[in-house]
Amino acid sequence: MKFEDDIRQKKGKEKIVVLTAYDYQIAKILDDGPIDMILVGDSLGMVFQGQNNTKQVTMKNMIYHTKAVARGARRIPIITDMPVGSYHTPESAEENARLFLEAGAHGVKVEGNKPETIKGLADSGIPVMGHVGLLPQTAEVYKVQGKDPKEAERLLQGALEIDRSGVFTMVLECIPEKLAKRITENVNVPTIGIGAGKFCDGQVLVINDMLGLGDGFTPKFLKKYANLNKTIKEALDEFSHEVRIGAYPDDEHTYH
Ligand code: KIV
Asked: I want to staple 77 with a disulfide (CB 3.0 to 4.6 A). Which of 3, 159, 240, 254 is the partner?
């Protein structure tokens, strides 16, 4: 069965688990675990490059990271985010999406309501993940979307349109739980929430955030399942201390 059909069939039956990855080693760990899809998100602009947003991320960056992830993930489908400027027209979208497939991705993610582009990609056999709600590539400020009824209706209509255009799943980012539930109940494909509450068909998080690698990003929706920031700092302290007192390298870690 095609991976996108497998994902579609989980709607209403089984929750879908998605995490981002940007490098070989993390991808390899995810590939051995109970995850349904890996997203090479353009969030790498923030967590990998140290930018303030995703707007500087290029095709070259995304191809580089997709290749690294694909070397580690041999089993789990990889979806690559199409970066800003890479899908202005259906033609450029297809050309660029094919570069991601060549790099090892199995599908692409497109932000916002781009029915023609999504249809063009889907009709040419490229699995497309949609993205509704907070759209980091165009947002001026990161805040919850769809709080007032008019905006909620606009987001619902957008979700219905990209559903009809041929996405196999869609991300719902930073929207109230009630709206996410309404969208989830009204679209045919599974919804994957991030800051969109428990009624979505699945959840995605940025791996650096859920592992507690950074220490500055603390939105309400984020649950840290580990505190790697602290673990790394403790390891650094221990290493520095041992080097300074001459305890490392000891006999065990020395060639004789
Ligand atoms: O870029 C990204 O990691 C994303 C997820 C937050 C859905 O788009």
From this structure: 3
Name every residue whose Cβ is closer than 8 Å to that of residue 221 and which is 6 or more positions away in sequence.
174, 194, 195, 196
Nearest atom within ligand 1 for CA of residue 43: 1
Active site residue 173: yes
Q: What is the pTM of this model?
A: 0.97
Which of 142, 194, 210, 217 gets mutated to test ligand 1 (max ligand atoms within 8 A of its CB)? 194
* pLDDT, mean of residues 84-111: 97
The tens digit of pLDDT for each residue in 46-71 reads 999 999 999 999 999 999 999 999 99
Question: Which of the four pLDDT bands, split at 50, 70 and 90, describes residue 217?
Answer: confident
Give me the residue spans of the domains in the chain.
3-225, 227-256
Instruction: Report the atom number in ligand 1 closest to the C-alpha of 171.
Output: 7
Q: Which CATH number fits domain 3-225: 1.10.10.10, 1.10.357.10, 3.40.50.720, 3.20.20.60?
A: 3.20.20.60
